[in-house]
Each structure stands twice: as structure tokens, then as C-alpha cells.
Amino acid sequence: EEEEAVSKVIQQKLTELGISFQEDKAGKSIGGNAGNLYVYLPGTLPGSVFFSAHMDRVIGGKGIRPHVEQDRITSS
Description:
Layout: H1 3-16, E1 20-23, H2 26-29, E2 37-40, E3 66-69, E4 72-75
Antiparallel strand pairs: 1-2, 3-4
């Protein structure tokens, strides 16, 4: 639910900073409301660097265990 709001804030900040980005449609394929953001910053050295972070979250609490099914990890 909150991922779209977080994505919009990040997109606004990136736009304010003049940083280019793209959003894919990955969220729709899993029933989410936001895709992945790909941010592009020019570098001074050859090659590329990739950083990854999550905009979603799992509600904290006791007894929560990861559940791995195919290519997804969720909480049980």
C-alpha cells in the first residue's frame, strides 16, 4: 500500500535534483502498486555501479519467519 507513496516521494526528489530515472512495470506483475526505479548518474570512471534497495517493507513483530517460494521471499 505504501510503496507507491514512497516511490512518488523518491521520484519527486530525483526530479528536483535533476537526476534521470525510469520506473518499470514489475509491481503490476506481483499485484503491487509501484515498479522498480532505475536511477542514472553519470560517472567519472569507466564501467557501471549498481545499487539496490527496497521501498516495500514487512510489518515487524515476533514470530515472523521468511517464506521462500520459487523466486519470492515473503513473511509467514
